[in-house]
Amino acid sequence: xxxxxxxxxxxxxxxxxxxxxxxxxxxxxxxxxxxxxxxxxxxxxxxxxxxxxxxxxxxxxxxxxxxxxxxxxxxxxxxxxxxxxxxxxxxxxxxxxxxxxxxxxxxxxxxxxxxxxxxxxxxxxxxxxxxxxxxxxxxxxxxxxxxxxxxxxxxxxxxxxxxxxxxxxxxxxxxxxxxxxxxxxxxxxxxxxxxxxxxxxxxxxxxxxxxxxxxxxxxxxxxxxxxxxxxxxxxxxxxxxxxxxxxxxxxxxxxxxxxxxxxxxxxxxxxxxxxxxxxxxxxxxxxxxxxxxxxxxxxxxxxxxxxxxxx
Length: 311
Hints:
Layout: E1 2-13, E2 16-27, E3 31-35, H1 42-49, E4 57-62, E5 65-66, E6 75-78, H2 90-100, H3 105-118, H4 134-146, E7 152-156, H5 164-179, E8 183-187, H6 191-197, E9 200-205, E10 208-214, H7 215-221, E11 226-232, E12 246-253, E13 257-264, H8 270-280, E14 283-288, H9 293-310
Parallel strand pairs: 3-8, 3-9, 6-7, 7-8
Antiparallel strand pairs: 1-2, 1-4, 4-5, 9-10, 11-13, 11-14, 12-13
């Protein structure tokens, strides 16, 4: 079941089209990566999903019905631009914002105390927000975002300001929330994080969706017949090991082994490469190298831009 369906949504500002007939489906329980260059239209789409603004054309369905004001109580939103009151004490502000989401003061305080301890910021309960580091402010705002157990979370650049340890803590929390039934939109430029925790993505560029689907399926779609091969150096032959059908993209050698990244030419197969290698040297390992999401992102954006520039 899809928790959100965006159907042919268009949004214009003066002479600028921020979204142009964008459609996408977000499956219930998914961790959905919303990707795109700066200015692609991601923030506009996020604002529409939060009912901060509204589409000029098209519609958004939430749990099967048109998105309405009452649905916002089921949404947790962590914006890229942080919105904390600097002079307020951290605990006081968190308690205030939790109550705006419909929680009672007693329930909110109990859960906040637990979360402050989990995220190791208990000592800052009575300190003003302006005294917190950027990372601790990010922790505070994330806690506020998830406190009311929303069924749908929108996280816009959630890892900004975090060191690697706290980034991993946040990733674990995102995956835990997904396992417990929350659906999560993750908007980020960190492609490594996308590969680690997202299972589906949509790529938006210049107001249009140019790619959508399951990450595994997308990586299979853009596979380019590239393999990583490690062979022993004990009987390594000379320069004619591979031949013109097998292009060596990179090579790393240590005392005992040499690792090649090899692209097999069109019309030839991995089996041919294995056969050639096995006739000439001892194979230690052989694995296909699928393109990274970063490679796919760059390739698709550049292809789209070149095609539309030509028009």
